[in-house]
Design a protein that fits this description.
mainly beta, about 10% helix
């Protein structure tokens, strides 16, 4: 015990297991290694044939293993995961959210078109909600608000409330929704067209037919 076979020199070499060797019950066991490879039995997160180095992201070799993740192997200074900062890498950088100590933070990815000017690269650290212009909505401001259509331009719907099927709307609502893609209005039964301009034109023509 305490030696391994040296294949290149045809002799035995001492194990010389380092401080990172897994703590065992007896000193004899502590000095043992694999008889063929010389590999010592390392403590958790300790590497190397003689157990003297830490895995990447760990530091502080001892018989109990290496400590802490995401740090320099020698100095212990934290190596932060993506989009994190601080001495302990414990918070998201501006422009990111949803902190995770292992994988870091997610990018906000706020829509340039839909976000308030000057806040395009910022969002809520917990929810990721970007700061949207009034006509835009969604977590990343990449959708049109109710009453607007055609992202990324988000033009105001042109539906006339008198001819539009309200659905969940109340009489106090001032915004009448339309199809968020093409702006098509949802007309009431027996109303063929319910956009404001055309509905007004039809009313004028109808009144004119009675007058003349």
């Amino acid at each position: 015990p305490g030696f391994y076979w040296n294949n290149t020199g045809s002799n035995c070499l001492p194990c010389n297991c380092g401080i990172g060797t897994e703590l065992t019950r007896t000193l004899t066991q502590l000095t043992e290694c694999d008889m063929n490879t010389g590999q010592c039995k390392c403590a958790p997160h300790v590497v190397g044939r003689d157990c003297t180095e830490c895995e990447l992201g760990y530091f502080g070799v001892s018989e109990n293993g290496c400590k802490r993740k995401f740090c320099d192997q020698i100095t212990g200074k934290c190596i932060c995961p993506p989009n994190t900062e601080g001495d302990r890498c414990d918070r998201c950088v501006v422009g990111s959210w949803d902190y995770n100590p292992v994988i870091g933070c997610k990018n906000c990815n706020c829509s340039i078109d839909g976000s308030v000017i000057g806040l395009e690269d910022q969002c809520d650290l917990t929810t990721g909600q970007c700061t949207c212009k009034p006509e835009f909505s969604g977590r990343a401001c990449n959708e049109c608000s109710k009453g607007y259509y055609g992202y990324p331009y988000c033009r105001k719907c042109n539906c006339d409330m008198r001819g539009t099927a309200w659905g969940n709307l109340s009489i106090s609502d001032t915004v009448v929704p339309c199809n968020p893609i093409d702006g098509q209005c949802n007309c009431k039964e027996n109303v063929e067209v319910c956009s404001k301009n055309i509905l007004h034109l039809n009313l004028i023509l109808l009144i004119s037919s009675f007058i003349f």
